[in-house]
Write a structure and sequence with these properties.
The protein is α/β, with parallel strands linked by helices. Helices cover 45% and strands 16% of the residues. It folds into 2 domains: 145 residues, Rossmann fold; 165 residues, Rossmann fold, CATH 3.40.50. It is built from 16 helices and 12 strands. α1 packs parallel to α5 and α14 packs across α15. The radius of gyration is 21 Å and the shape is globular. Bound molecules: NADPH dihydro-nicotinamide-adenine-dinucleotide phosphate.
Length: 434
């Protein structure tokens, strides 16, 4: 659409998607006749709103809030809230668009949405974050609900923010556990939700490796980020016998040849909200590379798990990844590889697992949190974790088998897009495209 010009991330996500579903449409012309792509590409609803809040000095600040309710063909809108200065309409739309197919792949009844704000929680006091969240929810509550739209966390939105958002929703609309996921365990959060995206990403690769009788044992893994997704990807990879060499934040990265001490990263980032540079204060064998990207680092490894943010790996960095020996790239983050980077990986025969498949574990467990909230019961960690592993196995097999069906072995992008799309498209057609 003419109005979408300049929405770089959004157009990138659509450009990646469109060519891959042609194989399906060729076999199913009824979808072309119904202009399914034309309708699907247009979000059902986009909300943009003002978020005024007072800082600790009593000054009024203002940020911009968003919720993109992209597609509800197979369930209520579902997708996280991101608080980061880089948030704009393009970023929101790309994330919501990807979310449609990711949610479809989970096999659970959830539609696609995403939201957030250009608010920066870093460096703000708890009271400032609370006032911002309360103002944000004052508007958002008009548009969400357990059967309508169920937001969760994403970059900059963790347990603290979800708590403040939930508290404000409750004051305005009364208690309803099912309106947000990623809640703390004390008020109807799900066991294993914190771990789900990172663990799920590693489970996806586990099943991929399993196909060739291989495993994580003895593998060297490079991870970016040190947030929610990274921490639990590192934890699970380590548990399965791998050595995790790196992690990062937006200021620099850590290389620890002995393997990243995940408990320390948890303490630094989850508990103390500190920078990753602090890691080397207690680990003298490790090195901190200030201002550098882990993807510019020369070191031998087998598996790359980009878990920070979009477009963190460009073409040159993908070439280095191949030179470093990377055989598998599984995206914990959303769209961390540029289109050019993906093309380099494809040409080199690297097994590339796109985020909409590899990081679907988070939203899958969010949907399980909704189920638990509906039945007013909590399931054990083992039960939820077991279901997560099964869901990731199913997603991997769906991507693999769909790619094979269209003579595109190992093209998990095609597999994920076609399988995710088919279910949504069929639902839209049968509902008269509403
Ligand atoms: P967090 O806020 O917990 O952590 C984000 C990490 O990435 C931090 O280490 C952060 O560093 C780093 N980072 C963020 N933005 C940038 C940037 N522009 N440049 C360099 N580093 C950056 O977020 P999550 O772990 O929840 O999310 C990470 C990725 O995973 C995102 O792409 C998100 O959409 C995706 N994802 C998350 C899910 C979830 O369940 N949380 C589910 C599915 C996907 P710093 O601290 O310096 O900002």
């Amino acid at each position: 659409h003419e109005n979408d010009r300049g929405q770089v991330e959004y157009l990138q996500a659509v450009d990646e998607f469109l060519p891959t579903v042609e194989v399906f449409l060729k076999e199913n012309p009824a979808f072309i006749e119904a202009n399914i792509l034309g309708v699907l590409i247009e979000p059902e609803r986009i909300l943009q709103f003002r978020v005024p809040w007072q800082d600790d000095q009593g000054n009024w600040q203002v940020n911009r809030g968003y919720r993109v309710q992209y597609n509800s063909a197979i369930g209520p809108y579902k997708g996280g809230l991101r608080f980061h200065p880089s948030v704009n309409l393009s970023v929101m739309k790309f994330l919501a668009f990807e979310q449609i197919f990711k949610n479809s792949l989970t096999g659970l009844p959830i539609g696609g949405g995403k939201g957030g704000s250009d608010f920066e929680p870093k460096g703000k006091s708890d009271a400032e974050v609370m006032r911002f969240c309360q103002s944000f929810m004052t508007e958002l509550q008009k548009h969400i609900g357990p059967s309508t739209d169920v937001p969760a966390g994403d970059i900059g939105v963790g347990a603290r923010e979800i708590g403040y958002l939930f508290g404000m929703y409750k004051r305005l609309r009364n208690y309803d556990a099912g309106v947000l996921t990623g809640k703390p365990l004390g008020y109807w959060g799900s066991e294993a939700r914190t771990e789900a995206t990172g663990y799920g990403c590693v489970y996806f690769v586990k099943h991929l490796l399993n196909d060739s009788n291989d495993s994580f044992a003895g593998k060297k893994v490079v991870v970016s980020g040190s947030g929610n997704v990274s921490i639990y990807a590192m934890e699970k990879a380590k548990e399965l016998g791998a050595t995790v060499l790196t992690c990062s934040d937006s200021n620099g990265f850590i290389y620890d040849p002995n393997g990243i001490d995940v408990e320390l990263v948890k303490e630094l980032k989850e508990k103390n909200r500190e920078r990753i540079s602090k890691y080397v204060e207690t680990h003298s064998d490790a090195t901190y590379y200030d201002g550098q990207s882990v993807w510019d680092f020369e070191v031998a490894y087998d598996i790359a798990l980009p878990c920070a943010t979009q477009n963190e790996i460009n073409e040159t960095q993908a070439e280095l990844l191949v030179k470093n020996g990377g055989k598998v790239v599984a995206e914990g983050a959303n769209m961390p590889c540029t289109l050019e980077a993906v093309s380099v990986l494809d040409k080199a025969g690297v097994l590339y697992c796109p985020g909409k498949a590899a990081n679907a574990g988070g939203v899958a467990v969010s949907a399980l949190e909704m189920s638990q909230n509906s039945e007013r019961l909590s399931w054990s960690f083992e039960k939820v974790d077991g279901m997560l592993d099964d869901i990731m196995k199913n997603i991997y097999e769906t991507c693999r088998d769909t790619a094979n069906k269209y003579d595109a072995a190992n093209n998990f992008v095609l597999g994920a897009n076609v399988a995710g799309f088919e279910k949504v498209a069929r639902a839209m057609l049968s509902q008269g495209l509403v």
